[in-house]
Amino acid sequence: MSSEFSRRDFLRYSGATGAAAFIAATLSACSGGPASTGSVGAGTNKDLITAVIGYGNDQSWDPTQTASAFAMAGINHVYEGLLDTDPITREPYPALATALPADTNATTWKFTLRDGAKWHDGQPVTADDVVFTFERILGPDNVLTGNFFKSWLREVKKVDDRSVELVFKFPFPDAAPRLTIAKIMPKHVFSQAGAWDAAKGGKAVGSGPYKQTAHNPKSNTSFEAFDGYNGPRPATVAKMNWLTIVDAAARVAKISGGSAEAQIADNIPYANVDQLKQQGLTVEGGKGMNHMFLMFNTAAKPFDDIRVRQALHYAIDKQKMIDVALKGHGTASSSFLNEGHPDHKRASVVYDYDPEKAKALLKEAGVSNLAINLMAVNVSWIADCLPTIASSWEAVGVKTTLEPQDTAALFTKMDQFQDYQVVAAASNPNQFGMDADLILHYNYVPGGLWMKYSHWDGTDDAEKLFTMMDEASKETDKAKRTQLIHEYLDFVAEQAILYPVVHNELMTAWDAKKLSGVRAQPYPGINLLQAKRT
Which of 2, 145, 265, 293 is an S-S bond match for 255, by CB 3.0 to 4.6 Å? Predict the structure, then answer.
């Protein structure tokens, strides 16, 4: 979201019915259709995996322009990058390329394409396809994935039909895992008139182990093994059927009981974990960047005052929120990054529960009789957290009105830059990767929507942060780079413009008697590239 663009441009390129729908996708794609009726096959068919995805399937399937949890998970089975990453360790491995780069500190990386790689329509994968894909990602109209490449990647050049060269602006070792975001797309398909709109609507033609066989946005997407695939992670079953079921009760029912149709479901509600375990299912959590954040409108007083923003964070009883709303499956934020992240360090400002400090900061800022209308997405676990925020703020003298609403509706208001005070929503940059540079660029980027929503873009403090982030990106010495990362994370914590309250655990359930090779991931969706029916 780094380039300036009009609302009309954003609607055109976001692949949604509006920018709100696009941002709904970035918030773990939590809007969507009703419980699915698009089931195919029976749960006893060992040539079929039936999966339940707890997020909507009505967002863009354009790999260069989507953050939809459902679509991104499906895309990882249909498309390949030059390099891809393990879904849990995030270690890169050669996918369409034949080898990892020999020197990750070099400013040019050359890749040779896998011999015999084919698109799902039978055409060969060529260097032209790679150049075509990166030209789209680096283009001025890319409002999502371009943020993860434009700061360090200058261009991608064709060497010959089966090899390409990536030219960097400066050494950037983190580029290896980052390349999994750039799913290579066939030029002969998506250069045609109207093809990008078709991709947004669900058309998928990749080179990966599974090809898409049907796409019903409010119901299901189905896949089958691609016979022409010759890469490192071949299909393990003949067919997959992924159901989109946003309603929690219906989702749990689909995987429950002896006649359960599905073998795996993600986004398991905390209240159902014990029930499913008692039925013999494996239920495991993935800890990562998934979090609830508060975003302040700094154009609305008194939220332009850093002391007020900090006070409202100090006032929240996060342990009560974790115990009551998250059933223990959460951690109070001590940095923008989650605990357990390789670059995590307690920030210089940590918002431990301190209502007296909150009162003192409000008094120091000259604020009394503050009334807040807290707008929020109606994602179930976010809604569960809101009463704790309200009671905590009321306890320090801040009258609080809660306004949870459909994600798309909330961000329609944001897109129209309607007046608001504070927003609570969910986010998880781990869908794209793990490194701190990527995670911060998801929200904090010049010209980005989040910065426009908060009215922080263009301020002296924002420019200071972006300069600090750029300096860290260019530093090749690991120790020095880590120090610079910690410095800008401290600054982000202090400013509290858009900042996590809690990081929570995402739960996945599966029937280990019917499915093996599954690992719970710390971001929405599932990965079945190594799963097998048993």
Answer: 265
Q: DSSP code of 267?
A: S
Cα–Cα distance, 336 to 345 (Å, whole number) = 9
- Tell me how far apart the alpha carbons of residues 363 and 346 are, in angstroms, rounded to a whole number: 27
Q: Which residues contact 478 (CB under 8 A, 6 or more apart)?
A: none
Q: Contact, 58 vs 46, CB < 8 A?
A: no
Backbone φ, ψ for residue 284 (5° rounding): -130, 155
Q: What is the pLDDT of residues 471-528, one digit of tens each?
A: 999 998 999 999 999 999 999 999 999 999 999 999 999 999 999 999 999 999 999 9
pTM of the model as a whole: 0.88
Strand pairing class (498-510; 422-427):
unpaired
Asked if residue 302 has a cis previous peptide bond (ω within 30° of 0), the answer is yes
CB 96 within 8 A of CB 117: yes
Q: How far apart are CA 52 and CA 253, in angstroms?
A: 10
- Residue 288 has φ and ψ, to the nearest 5°, of -165, -145
Cβ contact 499:333 at 8 Å = yes
What's the start-to-end Cα distance of the chain, in Å? Answer: 44
Q: What is the DSSP letter of 407?
A: H
Q: Is 340 helix (H, G, I), strand (E, B) or coil?
A: coil
Q: Is the separation of the CB atoms in 249 and 276 below 8 Å? A: no
Helix %, strand %, coil % for the chain, to 5?
A: 35, 20, 45
429, 438 Cβ separation under 8 angstroms: yes
* Spacing of C-alpha 394 from chain mean position: 32
Contacts (Cβ under 8 Å, ≥6 apart) of 19: 7, 10, 11, 411, 412, 415, 449
For residue 183, give both structure tokens: 């799913």
* pLDDT at residue 360 tops 80: yes
Distance (Å, whole) CA 351 – CA 329 = 19
Nearest to 520 by CA among 506, 530, 531: 506
d(CA 299, CA 117): 52
pLDDT bracket for residue 336 (50, 70, 90) = very high
Amino acid at 216: N
> In 10 A of CB 452, how many CB atoms?
16
User: From residue 48, how far is each of 53, 189, 235, 329, 427 by CA, in Å?
Assistant: 16, 29, 11, 32, 32
Closest CA to 439 of 453, 455, 428: 428
Tokens standing for residue 15: 């692949």
pLDDT above 50 for 259: yes
Separation CA 398–CA 217 (nearest Å) = 42
- Encode pLDDT of 195-223 as tens digits: 999 999 999 999 999 999 999 998 999 99
